[in-house]
Amino acid sequence: MIQKYRFGCPFETEAVTETVPCTGTYDRHEQESAAGGLDGIPYFSMSEDGREFSCPLEDGDAVYGLGENVRGINKRGWKYVSSCIDGSRHLESRHSLYGAHNFFVVDGHRRFGVFVDAAQKVEFDLGYTDRRRLSVKVEEDGFVLYILENDSVREIVREFRRMIGRSYIPPRWAFGYCQSRWGYKSAEDIEEVVRRHREDHVPLDSVCMDIDYMERYKDFTVDSRRFPDFAEFVRKMRKEHIHLVPIIDAGVKVEEGYPVYEEGVEKGYFCKREDGSDFVCGVWPGRVHFPDVLNPKAREWFGGWYHVLLDQGIEGFWNDMNEPAIFYTEDHLEEVFDKLEAYRGTNIGIDEFFDWQKTAESVDNYPDDYKKFYHQSPAGRIRHDKVHNLFGYNMTRAAGEAFERLEPDKRILIYSRSSYIGMHRYGGIWMGDNHSWWSHILLNLQMLPGLNMCGFLYTGADLGGFGEDTTEDLLIRWLELGIFTPLMRNHSAMGTRRQEYYQFGDTETFRNVIGLRYGLLPYLYSEFMKAALADDMMFLPLAFVYPEDPEAAGVEDQLMAGESMMIAPVYRQNASGRYVYLPEEMKLYRLRSVDDMDEEVLHAGHHYVKAELNEVLVFIRPDHLVPMSRGGEWEAGTDSSRLRLLHFVKDQAVYDLYNDDGYSRKVDLEQSLTRITVERDGTVRTEGAEAPECRLI
Ligand code: GLC
Prior knowledge:
Blueprint (H helix, E strand, L loop, with lengths): L1 E6 L16 E4 L4 E2 L11 E2 L5 E5 L5 E4 L13 E4 L16 E2 L2 E5 L3 E7 L4 E5 L6 E6 L4 E7 L3 H12 L12 E3 L7 H14 L5 E4 L20 H10 L3 E7 L2 E2 L5 H9 L13 E3 L2 E4 L6 H9 L2 H4 L5 E5 L9 H14 L6 H12 L12 E4 L2 E4 L7 H16 L6 E4 L2 E2 L7 E3 L8 H15 L5 E2 L1 E2 L8 H11 L5 E3 L16 H27 L5 E2 L1 H4 L13 E3 L3 E3 L9 E6 L3 E6 L5 E6 L2 E6 L5 E5 L3 E5 L13 E7 L3 E7 L14 E7 L4 E4 L5 E4 L1
Parallel strand pairs: 1-2, 8-24, 14-15, 14-28, 15-16, 16-20, 20-23, 23-25, 25-26, 27-28, 38-42
Antiparallel strand pairs: 1-13, 2-3, 4-5, 5-12, 6-9, 7-11, 9-10, 10-13, 11-12, 17-19, 18-19, 21-22, 29-30, 30-31, 31-36, 32-35, 33-34, 33-36, 37-38, 39-40, 40-41
Helix pairs in contact: 5-9, 7-8, 11-12
The protein binds alpha-D-glucopyranose.
């Protein structure tokens, strides 16, 4: 059951696609309320001004959701703030990251879901101020509160997901391995990456092109000195079965003669200052304007520019810096210069020093800068800070809507850094600028279920870590989690240690681990498609699958990955195994490659399980199957016609394998299913069009 309450006059975010009747409305100014007013809202007591609502938390209540955020799978105990930010240090002390994902579920004595559909800043105090209280505060009037009730947490999530529309589905090749680095400067650099992978038979499907490919960081341009015939280069790479995935940034460089800039100015499609002039700030290219993606016409116009790269054979993109990140505005820089200058030659004491330091550090992403520009939205002119969380969403929506027009039959890959719920229909997200820290492997795992709850299925972290220097063992362990995430991308920052597998010695392990991803693709792709088409999750906390098991709720470093499997990666330095909790009897496969593994049935309960650096742990549930191919060196080159089954059959196991063409937008679950049945005696049967040949491992 869904209840919907409207407060004041909300900005229409278009996060929700289903029509949900309003249960009650409240308008502070008119002092008028309907359907029982604020007292009629279940679970919560409301503040007088209708901007803060809170409820008690009982011992044992867990709070799941809130998408991209730090800390545990169960979010209870910390305060989160939805305010999209370019925040590169994903420390436990952070309250916000790049996305605003305002959906959570309270699971315990009562089970209910809450979605706060608000374009402005929202604070979620989940037992931080008071361990026994949950409160939500919306910065300004104008939001919609949805409350969803069901006995099952998973069903609450499904109901929510139905309400917000089907998640984005990328092309199948986007499930292949991607090598990326900020710093591949030319066609030769990229060719070298591809050559090494192919020579060593380490699978690879795509290479990301970071800002270095552009001409002076201008969107929709390619530097012709570094890429003399870009279309030809794209073709050449496609012959090697490689997709190039260029980055697009939010800021459009201010430069006479640059058509995106000139056209945007002429049509009035950039965000404006209060006086009507185009807002200027500094990002990679120096001075930029932001496309006004909240204006449908400007959105259509900006999206249209992707054709420049599509026309040259590009089939995938990543959208960046779209919180939007601001390095500086000239106004604020002036204030900073003045203030710092005033300290010159003075005797700087402790207070002055701290003030000096704070001032100097205030330059980028300065909150007041977000109050200096406006959007021309369908609801009229609105100041940016009031709709801040919708920018990245609408930039990616610009691309997604354009792809539907420009490539009506073909799926185009797109993922974004910033997002709001609703964007999950247009693209995926990556988890932003993490670090080469062991703790960030765990953070990667812990973010997955919350993101799935909010509709973001196509997601993954920068494997190996973006910031700072990686090590070989860290990269291997991280890849051993990354082989399960839909986006599997090794990406790192300029200036850090290079982290392509061939920078290290153990090529065989890298080949085998990445090879396992390709072996598992039939399962992972099927599970992704089933989750997308049934508005379900692909990665679930154990508590969602074993609600009756109190121990499952405390497991913070294992996940259910699809219907058949539990994963428990090793994420500690020098560990050659780990403790694992099994809510029921399962079969452990210890995978070293698609051909080399051992297996063991483990009873329910706690175990210490060995996992050397080259070993991946997979736990199969009773009466479940995981179909595996022998892998391949690129997605389209994997042979899916002959599959082997990881299995744990006690009575009978039935698995529905999803096998479509992987490219067309039209997806039909029924049409593309093969049903694989394994009986207790080991008999294997398949039904469905083009059923692969299957045998037990
Ligand atoms: C941002 C992105 C990162 C990218 C860099 C340069 O930090 O998050 O992935 O490499 O910008 O474009």
